[in-house]
Amino acid sequence: MSAAGDRLQDTARQAALALPDVSHGYPFTPGLDVYKVADKVFLIVTDDPDDQIITVKCEPEHARAHVRGYASITPGRHLDKRHWISLGPGPGITERLVTDAVEDSYDLAVERLPRRDRPGAR
Which region is the signal sequence (predicted)? Predict the structure, then answer.
């Protein structure tokens, strides 16, 4: 079953908040809910009901595969198009795909942190 826009965003938010040491807020603009781990962004959720997307970090080869494989996955909006993808509602965009994308994005952000700043290192 495909995830509708609001469900897609709710699923992404829940997945992000279930991960260790996640914070979120609106540092850029009131319409973008930004999720971070140790000040590294890994998820952006739009609050615009007419543009229900999420944007996540993604390895470049996986990003290209997702963009080719799903009509509603595009290179990251307003971000580095090689390392970010935006997911919108559409065929094949399941809750599992959304959760996996959020968790993978979080893992990429954590991998780039100094060991002392990684969750559980304290």
Answer: none
